[in-house]
Amino acid sequence: MRGIAALSYLGAAAALVSTVAAQSYNDIADIHVYGQHFFYSNNGSQFFMKGVAYQQNYSPNGSVSANITYSDPLADAKGCARDIPYLKQIFTNVIRVYAIDPTANHDDCMRQLADADIYVIADLGEPKTSIQSDDPQWDVSLYQRYTSVIDALAKYKNVIGFFAGNENVSAGNQTSAAAFVKAAVRDCKGYIASQNYRNTLGVGYATADVPTRNDLAHYFACEPDNSGNQTQIDFWGYNVYSWCGNSTYGASSYGERYDFFSDYPVPVFFAEYGCIEGVDGGATHRPFTEVEVLFGNMSDVFSGGIVYEWFMGENNYGLVSLDGDSSVSPYPDFTSLRNQLQSISPSTTQSSAYTPSNSAPSCPSTGSAWEAVASPLPPPVNAQLCQCMASSLECNVKSTDETSYGDVFDYICHANDDFCAGIAHNASTGDFGAYSGCNPKEQLAWVANQYYLGNSKSSSACDFSGMATVQKATTAGGTCQSLLDAAGTGGTGSVASPTGRGTDAGPAASSSSKGGAPGMSTPAFFEHGSAIFAVYVTIAAISMIGMVAL
Ligand SMILES: *[C@@H]1O[C@H](CO)[C@@H](O)[C@H](O)[C@H]1NC(C)=O
Ligand SMILES: *[C@@H]1O[C@H](CO)[C@@H](O)[C@H](O)[C@H]1NC(C)=O
Ligand SMILES: *[C@@H]1O[C@H](CO)[C@@H](O)[C@H](O)[C@H]1NC(C)=O
Ligand SMILES: *[C@@H]1O[C@H](CO)[C@@H](O)[C@H](O)[C@H]1NC(C)=O
Ligand SMILES: *[C@@H]1O[C@H](CO)[C@@H](O)[C@H](O)[C@H]1NC(C)=O
Ligand SMILES: *[C@@H]1O[C@H](CO)[C@@H](O)[C@H](O)[C@H]1NC(C)=O
Ligand SMILES: *[C@@H]1O[C@H](CO)[C@@H](O)[C@H](O)[C@H]1NC(C)=O
Ligand SMILES: *[C@@H]1O[C@H](CO)[C@@H](O)[C@H](O)[C@H]1NC(C)=O
Ligand SMILES: *[C@@H]1O[C@H](CO)[C@@H](O)[C@H](O)[C@H]1NC(C)=O
Hints:
Number of strands: 17
Mean pLDDT: 88
Distance between the termini: 74 Å
Number of domains: 2
CATH superfamily of the largest domain: Glycosidases
Structural class: alpha/beta
Low-confidence stretches: 1-20, 509-550
Oligomer: single chain
Bound molecules: 2-acetamido-2-deoxy-beta-D-glucopyranose
Largest sheet: 8 strands, parallel, barrel
CATH architecture of the largest domain: Alpha-Beta Barrel
Radius of gyration: 25 Å
CATH class of the largest domain: Alpha Beta
Strand order of the largest sheet: 4-5-6-7-8-9-10-11
């Protein structure tokens, strides 16, 4: 039961907020990273995040189903107008959004937010297009999605930056996904620079509170040689639910985290916080006693945090409920949070009085607990290279049915590892083919062509049950030829990063990179041993005679 009295009080407070000076997203002071802290770029004051996760009906850690849809909170001007007065009551100066629609118009919300001095941090993925924990890739469809979100939000000066990954490493056997996320960080940073977007736009990663968290933090902040490419994150988000109810600095492990991050080279903040377990009175009664500590004596190391979350949903973390989508009803913990945030006064520093002293940590060494090498990372995704390659082939794939690709990959890679070297992507060995970032159809075409060439261009070697067909190869010239030369005849060379807009080279052939080249990290590909693979092998065995009559 939510108190009526509290509501009318809050309504009055909301009216007060509308007196702030109006400013647009063009003239709000942007936030920049310097050493371990965030600063306002206009006056060098330190910036602490008093944030809220702001996306309705969205479970960022949910399993990915092809049917998940999302609604873009920054495209909902009415929702922004409804919520901003309440967000201001809890001193919100940043919201985190998890999935935006890059084709939507965000001007209205972004103007309203700027007007209320509220900044935005946006995740780059969306449920159907993001780096998968168990089958990580960094490929054309992901690159185009991530860069299109950057394109959509770059012009708003109240955007602090982006998360190239959120909890993509959640289990001990998923550490190799970190290599693909770090490649995404590198390419997104490179993209921001290549488009001459403002250099205060940052790219970071948000981790769950998992056992590999220390290795993860070091991995993303370390700077091995990567051909001069910047691979270090700009900030580190920490999703932490360890302070429940009346916890303490010690019991919550906040103390340990403070010690761990005290020599971290980039800003750290809680990218989600607000445990609902063990709270007197239930989930909606969180006391938020951690606020005093987070913005108190932890504030020389942590840059504040983002409470999870604004909207009430199935998981019960909401601070408010909506009455018929038109009015906002805060829960009791909204009031606790407000009271806590009201009484903080973190000691701030001026950028002019601050000299960063922390240096990049060393990269974690690989072994059973940490599998991803820090260098080389997966190669820069280059859609133009993939297209040049596909037109240069003599045997190309015509089938677009990705679910049938698995058995062909299986057959070809089994026939000869070398045919698949160009699409290998093994993060623990750092073994990446030049075409490993191409979409599944292009990858399959590459290996089919390798197979065809390797079998003396016998016409039966380019059929695969009718999925492939010989084509007249286009003679590459100019840029295409130099890209193909760099990739080499076996596809194992290294190719430069793309220079144009992320979507210049045309749309990705597929937005669901799932059916394509599952775990193509030859030769261990066959050791995956999942049920799906067993099926592929069976099908392959049965249909092989018809598929390739050699
Ligand atoms: C610096 O600028 C920001 C944004 O305009 C403002 O909120 C803050 O109070 C300023 N700091 C000082 C010390 O004036
Ligand atoms: C997602 O996170 C919530 C807490 O935010 C947790 O209760 C739930 O178990 C998580 N679900 C998965 C699938 O990890
Ligand atoms: C997704 O939606 C389609 C069509 O609406 C349905 O047939 C399918 O079962 C759904 N899949 C899942 C995993 O919910
Ligand atoms: C990690 O282990 C889980 C459960 O055993 C399994 O489903 C998943 O595929 C594994 N992931 C990787 C990348 O091996
Ligand atoms: C991986 O990170 C992206 C970007 O933050 C996020 O959208 C996505 O949900 C994450 N994927 C998984 C499986 O956690
Ligand atoms: C937490 O502290 C408050 C205020 O001191 C007290 O009323 C409440 O009973 C405590 N809750 C628990 C679970 O100890
Ligand atoms: C921070 O404050 C907490 C609670 O007030 C206290 O237990 C802890 O020792 C303090 N930590 C530091 C580093 O001063
Ligand atoms: C980044 O690395 C690639 C090779 O992977 C190289 O082609 C490119 O020139 C590098 N970029 C910079 C800015 O050094
Ligand atoms: C990567 O290669 C190593 C060494 O060949 C192998 O042990 C490992 O299983 C491979 N990883 C994957 C994900 O296939």
